[in-house]
Write a structure and sequence with these properties.
It is a single chain. By secondary structure, this protein is of the alpha/beta class. It is built from eleven helices and five strands, in the order βαβαβαβαβααααααα. Strands 2-1-3-4-5 form a five-stranded parallel beta sheet, with helices on both faces. Helix 3 runs parallel beside helix 4 and helix 9 (168-175) packs across helix 10 (179-193). It is rod-shaped and about 80 Å long. The chain starts with a strand and ends in a 6-residue tail after the last helix.
Length: 213
Amino acid sequence: MIEILLVDDHQLMVEGTRLIIEQEPDMKVHTEMSSLKALEQIKIQSFNVMLVNLQMSEMDGFELTKKALAIDPNVKILIYSGFEILPHFHSFMESGAVGFVPKTASREQLITAIRCALKQDVVIPITLLKELYQAISPSMCQEAVVKDLTLNEKEKTILKELEKGKTNKVIAQTLYIGQRTLEYNLTNIFNKLGVNSRIEAVLKAKEIGLLSS
């Protein structure tokens, strides 16, 4: 039997959620409307999963999660809230919770989240995933690109010559290399930058800071 502790100070939500979950024959729900009593409860009984409301009077769900894990490191805790999690995402990640389930979730989504938590697999609502993607700033993406991108000194020199608008022949003569060698280096530069032309290479290099704008 999967033993679940539901902690929420809204009685109607507690009863409704308990009835939904206990439709599963292998799930048993215990409830607490007090965060402090919930902590006392897990000292005397082991639970497989905890569903913890985010906003509660005695302490919020993140604080309760930390204290509960200090008592029982094996319990899997899901934040169960009607509030948006994105503004609190840093606190959510630090709390030790294994996932987030909105109170608007369907019965199937709630049960799936519980079963995934048991396997330490996390189901993130697609709405949250989209919000997280949109929250990533272009500068963060750019930093990641620059960090992963490595050009050798010859390739950097070629980029600077491209910026000056020189032809392949002139660049080859300037660098004392054959045109085929230059073309080989250009192909490598294009592949690394993910571009298909000299102009695109120069623009991309400026965009990510390899060339001064």
